[in-house]
Amino acid sequence: SIWRPRTDKTLPSRAFWLGGLTLHCWRCSAVEALAASFDQYVTVMVLDEASQIFAPMFYILSTSKSSDANWNMQHFVVQATDQRLALAQGVTDFEPALIGAVQVQFTEADVVSCMFHFKQAVFRAMRRLHILSSESRLVMARGCLDMLTVIRVNKICQHGIRWVDGGIQAVWNVHGISTD
To answer: 20 to 30 A Cα–Cα from 105, which one of 76, 92, 116, 136?
Structure first.
């Protein structure tokens, strides 16, 4: 854990840094109870090359959402990994300050942008196109558009299309549109 006096209101007064299996167990039982007293909850995930599965590496709770606080989070992650972490892609869910911090700390990273704003834009477009709310909710549900963040761009044709053809298409393709 990292504790610092809250003299500068732009910096977090407390942040938890835990890693490995201990954290995974801790997160299951305590994060929901603790998260209410924090302003931000960040999960840093890494791609396990052997299994091709994204795994959580750090869970971070912070009392600040400022650019400086987000930069510090990224910096502490880099330091905790002995500067061996090279971010290939950043996906963030809400915070422009977090996007900026990632871009400063990992200059070579491709920041995908903000999933929240992307989903919001998709939802508004569906409303504009008069797509039923029940159908819109399916697209907005967890595991639909979110999948775009865990499939590498160069693998979308191979894995993404197979994922759609493998079952998700039946959920959202209510008009029977053929993909042939």
So the answer is: 116
